[in-house]
Specification:
By secondary structure, the protein is α+β, with helices and mostly antiparallel strands. Helix content is 20%, strand content 33%. Strands 1, 2, 3, 4, 5, 6, 7, 8, 9, 10 and 11 form an 11-stranded mixed β-sheet that branches. The model has no long low-confidence stretch (mean pLDDT 94).
Length: 236
């Protein structure tokens, strides 16, 4: 079961575990949206079909925070926040090597290969390609085994964007079986760790955080803790 971080009549914030679809697809596998509809239906004894709007998604292998809207009004307002970048999604990733420079912006054009499902970096102007922009900051680095912890802030939300752009700069994400390789049984070292939004009806700013899971993050416990404290303004 997914961990519910926050809920009220308009908003549901949940922590999606790795390797669970956010929304159903052609595989017919279980998904977060259906699970949370069942949760709301049972908890509140809702008759008939339960409404939940999926405002944004995480790639299937990626865990972390997801915002779901419980009303149509909330869905429209949260989607607008996402479109205008008023909703901010921040990720933590462990990558191979240490980026140079330690902070920067990556801008690429991405195109999905329909035959394989992979996303490719292509020249600007390629038919069907979408521009992808992210900002990264190196929070910590370890020479052995040659890995770094990055904070990723998205400007766009393209399919596989973080994974493909970091691979393209020569620093694939640890345990990314599709774009970088790894050992079976360990989740990808990419996590939706912080989510900032304005409550869709109350107009109040809200900040949610989620601690990354997986062996790759364990070597960066202190830096992860410092990042999460900084998101909520906790200096302890």
């Amino acid at each position: 079961m997914c961990n519910v971080v926050y809920e009220d009549n308009h908003l549901l914030i949940v922590q999606k575990p790795p390797n669970l679809l956010t929304q159903g697809d052609a595989t017919g596998d279980a998904c977060l949206l259906d699970m949370m509809k069942a949760y709301v239906k049972q908890k509140y004894q809702k008759p008939g079909e339960v409404y939940l709007g999926c405002v944004h998604r995480l790639d299937r292998p990626v865990g972390g925070l997801v915002a779901l809207a419980r009303t149509g009004k909330a869905a429209a307002r949260l989607s607008e926040q996402l479109r205008t970048h008023a909703m901010r999604r921040d990720y933590l990733a462990v990558v191979h090597g240490t980026p140079a420079p330690p902070t920067g912006t990556l801008t690429d054009w991405l195109l999905k290969d329909e035959a394989t499902g992979n996303v490719l970096r292509v020249p600007g102007g390629t038919p069907g390609a979408q521009q992808a922009v992210l900002h990264y900051t190196t929070l910590a680095a370890h020479d052995a085994p040659g890995r770094a912890l990055l904070h990723i802030a998205l400007e766009t939300g393209r399919k596989h964007q973080i994974r493909v752009q970091l691979m393209g700069m020569g620093h694939p994400i640890v345990q990314d079986m599709r774009y970088g390789g790894g050992e079976a049984g360990e989740p990808i070292a990419l996590w939706g760790a912080a989510l900032r939004l304005t409550h869709p009806t109350k107009g109040e700013p809200m900040v949610f955080t989620s601690r990354p899971q997986g062996k790759a993050f364990a070597a960066f416990d202190e830096a992860v803790d410092a990042f999460l404290r900084a998101q909520t303004g906790d200096s302890a």
